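User: My collaborator sent over this chain with a note saying "see what the structure looks like." That's all I know about it. Can you take a look?
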Amino acid sequence: MASPTPDEIICFHCQQSAEKFLKGFLVLHGIVPPRTHDLTHLLEMCENRESEFASLISKCSFLNRYAVTVRYSYELQITTDDMKTAIQYAKDVKEFVLKLVKK
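Assistant: Without extra context I'll predict from the sequence alone. Here is the result:
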């Protein structure tokens, strides 16, 4: 089994970043987040508090595929374009959450 490529590692960390921002939003609002890496589930929980989170569904769905799979299964064929998209989507989640927190 080959080691993950830098693009795969970056995509994994982008997913992790989005996960932490969603969980941070939940904690800020007194909600204990579940032990999951599923961004769509976390996003749904955030949506229950703030409906604007619905705008992130496609980005979180994209990032979701890089959760744990990348670390433990090296069968994904991740391209540099995938990596660039993952970075942008992670930034989008970060900026979205920070904007709501600063309201």
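A starting point for your reply to your collaborator: The first helix runs from residue 6 to 28.
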